Structures are given as structure tokens and as C-alpha cells.
């Protein structure tokens, strides 16, 4: 029996919702659990939170938002309705498109689309109001053509869900100018494994924008005004910990763009790829470009690479007379510089004396496990382990039944599950980067017949001069598919030679041979349409891309989620 058929519609009015919780479904939930069920009329809806009205008959200030406002975010409501030509209200006002259609994905499949609109009143068709709306519609291709009668086809073509919101200036979440008390990176105390590894969006939104607007930064992890284009990269201020705030041989700094990107020695940074948009929600808030460094002495490519981030000037509303601010927008950038070691066959800790002085005690590390559920991180800080930390501080301690640094890595039967059904998100993990303890199984085949296939040789993981473990790279192939998916994984295992043969009984030997940590990734296809909107309406509406590419089971997607609004 399909358990989903047993769901009874819950009256939203009868729910006892704790303070801080709101009806804020993901895009995929809106399509799969509400709109499709409404169209097919074959299963109950999860809740009565979405009301059925003739939406386009009303001006937005006449909509019955008050009836559902206690359950949604401030000045926001969802409605079932039918589309009408022109999307014109009875008073003559009109909802006008303000962005392209955005596909809504579930497990790599397009289940629907959403489009952003803004409202223009009948009295003023030149200037938009503060009312915005997302219109959700189902993908007609989901339903086989031979199963569509005329009534069903009409419902698919015209039934939509409208998510309407009033952008109240005094309540609007201002992502450009939220205030922080800047924390010194030296004073920041984080559990092992949490470090400065910001996303592209975080760099633009929380650091570069704030620098341009002279707002306090979340932390001092990005160094002040390093003249990247004046000095060779091997002369960067390592002594000032520039390359130590995030990961080995990598650092971030603010700088000014200069023509040619040529250093005083004659070396130059050369673009190695096209400029790529950085998205905030569905708006382009900035761009990043990759560079490689060419030495003047050798006139050939070096191991130094750089990502340069700049804001999208079209996304920032400024007065034409504000020349100083305009110049900062045009020239101020963040550069992420990295040295890529030739030793690709090994992964090791830094060789600095400070890190190597206690190598002999690496296998005696003891921790008091820190719970990370309530850990509040500054923008840019995430759980990202260095390879030696995975082996030394987590996997070996797990095998020896010793306390772990944090409870961030969960233990699951990893190889039973297709990757899109993995339990992401409990401790802030995302499909882009999550870790799991598990036991290796023969063939690395899931229950559905999919399998993880090795795609490169083992890499040795070093601690000082000692091999403490290995990592292998895998890609996932779905059952019956000859083409690899977007899911990739590093599997970490300990070096059995670390443990004396006489100290290993059969049980312990089995744990050493089969216990691993899997670090799984989902890589989105980087697609960008030149017609993509660069307006701010959609970005203000959604601070992060709501489209559910995390590919959880549809039945696991909660309709009542915690909101900060």
C-alpha cells in the first residue's frame, strides 16, 4: 500500500505551531505535494495552508492574506488559482514578468517551473509597486500524453500556485547592509573541522558588498588590500598568516583591479576561463573569473591560481552622482589565491615545525566531543576537513572507540542508499559536501542496482613523513545508466600498517579493513542564460536558491520549516 495515500489533510488552523516556525515550503514541495495533487485530485493535500481563490480578480492589497498570515512569513501567502490572459486584475492593474522561468528540480528531473512577477497598479503602469509574486506551474511532460483527456490537459495548462508577498521596506531583510560586530579571526574558536571556506555567494554578499558600503565584516578572514597585481604570488604575506586562515596554501584578500594584471617583476595573471555569474537566489549578484600566474623569469605557467570576485554593478542601485561609490564597485574585488602542489599523489599536513613537533603523539589525540547542532557560524565558515583530519581525528578515533571532535559526521549504511536519498542536512551538511561513517561493501552497489565506480588511483594521505591513510575517488552510476551522474565521492580508509600486527584481533582487523568515511558531493551543471534577470526582486525574495536540488525523498520534505523572518 502506498503510505502517501494514507495522509489526511491537516487543517492549518488546528496546528499548534511553535514560535519561529512558518509555512515555508521548498519549491519542489509546492509543485509535487500541492499543485500536482490539486490537479490530479487523487490524493489529499498535506495541509490547508494554500487557499483556493480567483487570484487575478483581486488587486493584491485586497487578497485575503490576513487569513493565512499567522502561518506564513510576514506579508506572504500562497493561493491556488487559474491563470488568466494578461494577468490583469478587475481594476486594470497587471502582474508583469520580472525574470525568466526557473525550472524546479527533484532528483535531476524538471517537475515544474516558477516565474517572478511584480505588480503595476492601474493608476501607474510605469512604476512597479512593492507587491511581488512567484507563479508555480507543473511541467506538462510529467504526465504521459495518452493519459491526458481534455479536462486534465486544461487543468495542467491553467492551474497554478501563486506565492504573493509585500516587500515592506521597514521589515525587508537587507542583505547588503546587515550589521555585524567584526570578529577577529585570531579570537574565533571553532570546533575541529570548521574553517573559512566561503561559497561564491557568501563572498559577494557578506564580504565584498559590505566592504564597498563600508559596513562591518563578519570576520577578518579576508586580508585588507593586498596588492596582488604588484607582487609575485610567492611573495605574498605568509608571515601575516595570509595563507593560514582557511586551508593550506590558500588565502583571500581585498584588492583593486589594475590593467593587465601585471606584477612589477613582469609576471602576469592570465584568465583561464570565462567569467561565471554568481547567483544570489535567482539574481546575478556578482561574477568570478579564474586566473593562472605566468612567471616573467620562466615565461611559463606556474602552480599559482586565483579566483577573482566582483559585484554585479547592475544589481546595486546607486546615484549616478556618487562617483566614489561607483569607482569602488567597478574596481574593488576579492581575490582567492591558491598554490597547487605538484605532489598530486599525496595529501599531507603542512611541514611547518609547529605542526610537526607533535607528530609522534598523533595517535593519542583525545577529545571531548562537541555537539554542533546549536553551533552558530559566521558567513563563510563551514565543516570542511583536511584529509589528514579525516583520518587522524575522525576515522582512527572511530575505529578505536574514542571520543570524536564533533558529532557532525553521522554513521549510516551508505552503500545501501542511492545518493539523492542520503540524510543530508541534519547538522548543516549540504549535497555539495557531506561526510558519513560507513562500512565498505563488495561492489559498492546500492539496493536499486546503482553503483559507485572508481575513477582514479588511490591517493596517500600523509602526516609528516608517515602514510596514515588513503582516499579514492568515485562517481555514481544509476541502475541501468551507462553515463555517470553528478554525484561524486571520496572514500577514506586508514593505513592498516599503522597498527602492529600482534595488537589486532580478528574483530579489530575487520574494523580496520572495512571502516571508512565517505565524503559525498553533488555538482550542479553550470548553466546560465544570457537573458537571466539581474534585477533585485528575486534575490530579496529568496536569500538562497530554494529549488530542491538536494534530491531528498519527496515524502521527507517538511511543509512547516523554521523561518528567520
From TrEMBL:
The GO terms describing molecular function are: DNA binding
Question: Ranges for the NAC domain?
Answer: 17-167, 190-340, 377-523
Q: Which residues form a coiled coil?
A: none
- Region feature (Disordered): 526-565
Provide the alphabetized UniProt keywords: DNA-binding, Nucleus, Transcription, Transcription regulation
Q: Where is the composition biased (Low complexity)?
A: 548-558
Q: Name one GO biological process term.
A: regulation of DNA-templated transcription
Q: Please note every region of biased composition (Acidic residues).
A: 538-547
Domain of life, per the record? Eukaryota
Annotated Gene3D superfamilies: NAC domain (2.170.150.80)
Listed Pfam families: NAM (PF02365)
Q: What is this protein called?
A: NAC domain-containing protein
Q: Which organism is it from?
A: Dipteronia dyeriana
Amino acid at each position: 500500500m502506498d503510505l502517501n495515500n494514507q495522509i489526511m489533510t491537516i487543517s492549518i488552523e488546528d496546528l499548534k505551531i511553535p514560535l519561529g516556525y512558518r509555512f515555508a515550503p521548498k519549491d519542489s514541495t509546492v509543485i509535487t505535494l500541492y499543485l500536482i495533487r490539486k490537479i490530479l485530485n487523487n490524493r489529499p493535500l498535506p495541509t490547508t495552508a494554500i487557499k483556493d481563490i480567483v487570484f487575478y480578480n483581486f488587486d493584491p492589497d485586497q487578497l485575503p492574506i490576513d487569513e493565512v498570515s499567522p502561518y506564513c512569513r510576514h506579508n506572504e501567502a500562497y493561493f491556488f488559482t487559474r491563470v488568466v490572459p494578461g494577468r490583469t486584475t478587475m481594476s486594470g492593474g497587471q502582474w508583469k514578468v520580472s525574470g525568466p522561468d526557473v525550472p524546479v528540480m527533484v532528483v535531476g528531473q524538471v517537475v515544474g517551473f516558477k516565474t517572478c512577477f511584480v505588480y503595476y497598479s492601474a493608476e501607474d503602469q510605469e512604476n512597479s509597486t512593492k507587491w511581488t509574486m512567484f507563479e508555480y506551474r507543473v511541467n506538462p511532460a510529467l504526465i504521459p500524453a495518452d493519459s491526458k483527456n481534455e479536462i486534465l490537459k486544461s487543468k495542467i495548462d491553467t492551474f497554478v500556485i501563486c506565492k504573493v508577498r509585500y516587500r515592506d521596506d521597514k521589515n525587508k531583510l537587507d542583505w547588503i547592509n546587515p550589521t555585524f560586530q567584526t570578529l577577529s579571526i585570531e579570537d574565533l574558536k571553532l570546533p575541529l573541522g570548521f574553517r573559512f571556506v566561503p561559497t561564491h555567494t557568501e563572498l559577494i554578499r557578506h564580504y565584498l558588498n559590505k566592504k564597498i558600503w563600508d559596513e562591518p565584516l563578519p570576520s577578518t578572514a579576508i586580508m585588507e588590500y593586498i596588492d596582488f597585481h604588484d607582487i609575485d604570488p610567492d611573495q605574498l604575506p605568509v608571515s601575516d598568516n595570509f595563507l593560514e586562515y582557511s586551508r593550506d596554501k590558500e588565502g583571500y584578500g581585498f584588492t583593486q583591479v589594475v590593467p593587465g594584471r601585471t606584477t612589477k617583476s613582469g609576471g602576469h595573471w592570465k584568465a583561464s576561463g570565462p567569467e561565471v555569474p554568481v547567483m544570489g537566489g535567482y539574481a546575478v549578484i556578482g561574477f568570478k573569473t579564474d586566473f593562472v600566474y605566468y612567471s616573467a623569469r620562466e615565461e611559463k605557467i606556474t602552480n599559482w591560481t586565483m579566483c577573482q570576485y566582483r559585484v554585479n554593478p547592475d544589481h546595486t542601485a546607486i546615484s549616478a552622482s556618487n562617483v566614489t561609490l561607483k569607482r569602488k564597485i567597478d574596481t574593488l574585488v576579492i581575490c582567492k589565491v591558491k598554490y597547487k602542489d605538484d605532489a598530486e599523489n599525496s595529501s599531507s599536513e603542512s611541514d611547518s615545525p609547529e605542526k610537526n613537533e607533535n607528530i609522534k603523539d598523533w595517535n593519542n589525540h583525545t577529545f571531548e566531543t562537541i555537539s554542533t547542532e546549536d553551533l552558530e557560524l559566521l558567513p563563510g565558515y563551514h565543516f570542511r576537513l583536511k584529509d589528514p583530519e579525516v583520518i587522524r581525528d575522525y576515522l582512527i578515533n572511530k575505529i578505536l572507540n574514542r571520543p570524536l571532535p564533533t558529532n557532525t559526521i553521522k554513521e549510516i549504511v551508505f552503500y545501501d542508499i542511492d545518493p539523492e536519498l542520503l540524510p543530508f542536512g541534519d547538522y548543516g551538511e549540504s549535497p555539495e559536501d557531506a561526510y558519513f561513517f560507513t562500512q565498505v561493501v563488495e561492489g559498492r552497489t546500492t539496493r536499486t542496482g546503482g553503483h559507485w565506480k572508481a575513477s582514479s588511483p588511490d591517493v596517500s594521505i600523509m602526516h609528516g613523513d608517515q602514510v596514515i591513510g588513503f582516499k579514492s575517488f568515485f562517481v555514481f552510476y544509476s541502475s541501468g545508466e551507462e553515463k555517470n551522474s553528478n554525484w561524486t565521492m571520496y572514500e577514506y580508509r586508514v593505513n592498516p600498517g599503522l597498527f602492529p600486527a600482534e595488537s589486532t584481533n580478528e574483530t579489530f582487523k575487520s574494523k580496520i579493513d572495512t571502516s571508512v568515511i565517505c565524503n559525498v558531493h553533488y555538482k550542479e551543471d553550470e548553466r546560465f542564460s544570457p537573458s537571466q534577470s539581474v534585477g533585485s526582486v528575486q534575490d530579496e525574495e529568496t536569500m538562497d536558491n530554494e529549488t530542491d536540488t538536494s534530491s531528498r525523498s519527496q515524502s521527507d520534505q517538511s511543509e512547516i520549516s523554521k523561518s528567520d523572518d
